[in-house]
Write a structure and sequence with these properties.
The chain is an alpha+beta fold. The chain is built from 4 helices and 4 strands, in the order H-E-E-E-H-H-H-E. The structure holds zinc ion (ZN).
Length: about 150
Amino acid sequence: MSELRDLYQEVILDHNKRPRNFGALEPADRRAIGHNPLCGDKLTVYVRLDGTRVADVRFEGQGCAISKASASMMTEMVKGLSRDDIAALFESFHHLVTAPDAGDEGDHLGKLTVFAGVREYPTRVKCATLSWHTLRAALEDEAPQPVTTE
Ligand code: ZN
C-alpha cells in the first residue's frame, strides 16, 4: 500500500510541477474565481462552451500542490464532457474524497482516485475540490461571482 501511495503522490507532484491547461483562456465563454481561505488557494477557471459541452477549459492561480494538481487533472478529465457528465463526475469525486466508507469508485474517475487519501485530512478536501466547485460555478453562473469553500 505504501508503494501505491508513493505512486499517487508522484502523480500529484508531477501535475503540481507541470500543471496541464495552465494559463488564461481568451476568449472564454465563462469564468469563475475560487478561493479556499483555509489554505490560501486561489484559482480562476476558464471555460469555452460548445452547446452544453465544455470545448476547452483552462485554469490559473496560486495554491498548494493538492489544489493545483486537482485543477490540472480536472481540466484533462472534463474537456469534451457535457454539463451533466461533469456534475456526475464531481459527485463521484466528492464522494471519493469525503466518504469514510468510499471504496473503489470505478474506472470512470481514472487518475482522480489518487485523491482518495485526502479524506483522511478534512482540511485538504477543500483543496482537492476547489477547482471543481469553481468549474461548477463557471458553468452555472452567467454572472461571475467569486466562490469560496467557506
Ligand atoms: Zn490547498
